[in-house]
């Protein structure tokens, strides 16, 4: 019976997939996307995920986990699998799955859909799951430290420096998205702020008042979260409290740094895990509500399956479908940042090995669903609406903006008028939606278009839009606090190689120092970006996609090496297939960013080196001081980006060479040069297991 059910699921998924892939231009419902995604995730988890768990990793619940072996009530703490799923999902699901698919929609719905569905099953979920198990079997060590243990001190040292740089960049970018979303937004800031005391109450309840009573804490936490969300409009209505919770970007940047510091040093059970678990209620609640709304409302897909912008000439971002689609859509398909979480906080809290399938593989499938909902949000808008929001430089004049947008969408059979642009903004309580780039406004508008048809009608559109913006801020902040804690572990590992006592994660002193250094790194980039639109994190923003995917390549290389060492060479295709694909696409994109100018528009727009060269050529002809300052900033930023891009390429090449070297040695029978460095197996029965 079970086999028959899954066979039916597979057939339905294949049918939905075929309808979407073979569409010849007729009107088609977005419901097919939801059906295809649900079926593919189900089949992927049930068969491929379980295959990896049983055959490749051989998960064993009789093997004690670091959460029990090193239980310190601070970082290592046995955590209920559903609470830990919530933490892990909240930590990995940042801005990426909301932004990347929206931007990639300029190429049509088909490329993004295929990469999100196929990529997550064969690459992203595999990556997250295997790294989580590897770290768990190395006493919860960080990715860089495990690379050093398994691939040598030199390779590990180089990788640790590269990974630390990438981590700081990613956390700073996530923090900037939060600041942009919550600045001058008292309703949003109040609700997000209230999740902190609610989470602390939940943590205390589950640990001391009613140990293990997760359901009670969950119900109470969810009710309090809904009350906080509802009470936001009261805050806005009261002049005093509105002023209290209205912070500028500079003030919010400082507040974010303070929160990140505190969340990273407090015991994980007190704030981080329960807050992430609480956030997951809202995150998955909204995503599942969107899926249900799509099934009920059955909105039509407005964007064609493919557009002419697959050639790289798109107005949203420059770059052809290969390789830039696979760098633009990272989170949701595969993301290197997840390797930091899977080797950071989560492996220190797992109660049983077999739970990692649900936590690691399952969480990534849910993030892919988030990406699918973001894609749907973009493609149910008309091309005119989509491009008016996501094209930069449209200005404020709706007449001029409409002309520019219509020039872009002329081949798609659509047209938008200045009145439609004005009415679109007014319908959601905004002054303008022109050039609201970054993906978040598009996602929020898509949510609004779905929800208002079911609840509230047009009068509720402003509420749903601002609710979605709040949802996105809450969504992303959870990745900032988890990223900071992971950064603390990484810094303690790096400095611990020079001064061994510093690596002791039980030490409050060294933990506080490492956290301060981590927050100082991403906090500086954040603050500088807030005070200077051409500086700080905005200097490094273009590196996000390529550096993130290079990190995934490093994690997959480590996984391949460990599988070889464990005598699992026949199963290494599980890691090698995604490694080769992600490696080829990412290195291709990175190399294109390093090429000199040749006069070709797309080539020069993509390359950091070409951009710096072209602006350097323009600089002598400029006379306006503001224009000169802008040109100098662009040149400086692209030079910095090119240098760092070269550094990351170097790190990946070093790891490629060492991966081939070690795997060749092991395959030839030499297991002594680089022995397996997993922690000794200890029986779970030797430790007190608190369910």
The biggest beta sheet reads: none
**Strand percentage, roughly?**
under 5%
Spatial shape:
globular
Name the poorly predicted regions: none
Mean pLDDT across all amino acids: 89
Kindly provide the radius of gyration, computed on alpha-carbon positions and rounded to a whole number of angstroms: 24 Å
Order of helices and strands: HHHHHHHHHHHHHHHHHHHHHHHHHHHH
Put simply, the count of helices is 28
Given helix and strand content, the structural type is mainly alpha
Helicity, as a percent range: 55-70%
- Total number of β-strand segments? 0
Separation of the first and last Cα atoms: 32 Å
Report on the structure:
It is a single chain. The chain has 691 residues and is mostly helical. The protein contains 28 helices and no strands. The chain has helices at 2-21, 31-56, 66-69, 81-92, 96-104, 109-136, 143-151, 153-182, 186-209, 214-237, 239-244, 249-265, 272-297, 321-328, 337-342, 355-379, 383-390, 398-409, 418-427, 440-451, 461-496, 508-531, 537-540, 544-565, 573-592, 601-606, 608-618, 625-667. Helix 5 (96-104) packs across helix 16, helix 6 (109-136) packs across helix 25 and helix 17 crosses helix 18. It is globular and about 70 Å long. The two termini are 32 Å apart. The model has no long low-confidence stretch (mean pLDDT 89).
């Amino acid at each position: 019976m079970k086999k028959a059910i899954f066979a039916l699921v597979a057939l339905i998924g294949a049918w939905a997939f075929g309808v979407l892939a073979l569409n010849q231009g007729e009107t088609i419902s977005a419901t097919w996307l939801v059906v295809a995604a649900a079926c593919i995730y189900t089949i992927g988890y049930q068969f491929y995920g379980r295959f990896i768990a049983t055959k490749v990793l051989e998960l064993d619940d009789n093997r004690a986990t670091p959460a029990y072996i090193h239980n310190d009530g601070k970082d290592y703490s046995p955590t209920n699998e559903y609470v830990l799923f919530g933490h892990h999902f909240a930590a990995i699901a940042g801005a990426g799955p909301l932004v990347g698919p929206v931007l990639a929609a300029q190429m049509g719905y088909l490329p993004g859909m295929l990469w999100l569905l196929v990529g997550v099953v064969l690459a992203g979920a595999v990556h997250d799951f295997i790294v989580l198990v590897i770290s768990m079997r190395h006493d919860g060590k960080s990715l860089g430290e495990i690379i050093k243990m398994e691939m040598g001190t030199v390779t590990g040292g180089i990788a640790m420096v590269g990974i630390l740089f990438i981590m700081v960049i990613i956390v700073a970018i996530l923090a900037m998205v939060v600041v942009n979303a919550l600045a001058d937004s008292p309703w949003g800031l109040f609700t997000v702020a209230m999740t902190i005391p609610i989470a602390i109450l939940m943590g205390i309840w589950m640990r001391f008042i009613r140990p293990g009573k997760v359901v009670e804490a969950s119900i109470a936490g969810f009710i309090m979260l809904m009350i906080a969300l509802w009470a936001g409009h009261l805050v806005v209505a009261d002049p005093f409290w509105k002023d209290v919770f209205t912070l500028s970007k500079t003030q919010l940047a400082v507040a974010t740094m303070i929160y990140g510091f505190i969340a990273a040093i407090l015991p994980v059970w007190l704030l981080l895990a329960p807050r992430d678990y609480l956030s997951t209620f809202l995150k998955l609640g909204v995503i599942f509500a969107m899926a249900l709304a799509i099934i009920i409302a059955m909105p039509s897909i407005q964007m064609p399956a493919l557009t002419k912008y697959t050639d790289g000439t798109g107005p949203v971002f420059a770059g052809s479908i290969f390789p830039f689609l696979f760098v633009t859509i990272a989170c949701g398909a595969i993301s290197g940042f997840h390797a930091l979480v899977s080797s950071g906080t989560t492996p220190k809290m797992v109660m049983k090995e077999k739970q990692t399938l649900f936590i690691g593989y399952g969480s990534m499938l849910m993030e892919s669903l988030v990406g699918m909902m973001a894609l749907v949000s973009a493609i149910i808008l008309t091309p005119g609406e989509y491009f008016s929001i996501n094209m930069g430089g449209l200005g404020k004049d709706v007449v001029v903006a409409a002309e520019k947008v219509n020039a872009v969408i002329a081949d798609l059979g659509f047209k938008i008028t200045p009145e439609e642009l004005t009415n679109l903004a007014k319908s959601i309580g905004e002054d303008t939606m022109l050039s609201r780039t970054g993906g978040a406004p598009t996602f929020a508008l898509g949510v609004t278009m779905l929800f208002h048809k079911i609840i509230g009608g047009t009068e509720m559109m402003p509420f749903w839009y601002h609710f979605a913006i709040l949802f996105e801020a809450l969504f992303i902040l959870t990745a900032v606090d988890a990223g900071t804690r992971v950064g603390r572990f990484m810094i303690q590992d790096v400095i611990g190689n020079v001064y061994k006592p510093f690596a002791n994660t039980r030490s409050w002193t060294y933990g506080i120092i490492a956290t301060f250094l981590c927050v100082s790194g991403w906090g500086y980039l954040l603050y500088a970006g807030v005070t200077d639109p051409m500086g700080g994190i905005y200097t490094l923003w273009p590196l996000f996609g390529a550096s993130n995917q290079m990190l995934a390549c490093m994690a997959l290389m480590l996984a391949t090496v460990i599988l070889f060492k464990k005598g699992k060479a026949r199963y290494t295709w599980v890691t090698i297939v995604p490694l080769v694909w992600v490696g080829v696409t990412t290195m291709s994109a990175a190399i294109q960013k390093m090429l000199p100018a040749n006069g070709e528009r797309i080539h020069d727009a993509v390359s950091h080196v070409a951009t710096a060269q072209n602006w350097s050529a323009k600089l002598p002809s400029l006379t306006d001081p503001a224009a000169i300052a802008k040109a100098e900033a662009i040149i400086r930023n692209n030079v910095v980006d090119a240098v760092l891009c070269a550094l990351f390429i170097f790190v990946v090449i070093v790891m490629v060479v060492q991966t081939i070297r070690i795997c060749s040695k092991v395959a030839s029978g030499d297991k002594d040069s680089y022995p397996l460095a997993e922690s000794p197996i200890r029986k779970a029965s030797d430790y007190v297991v608190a369910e």
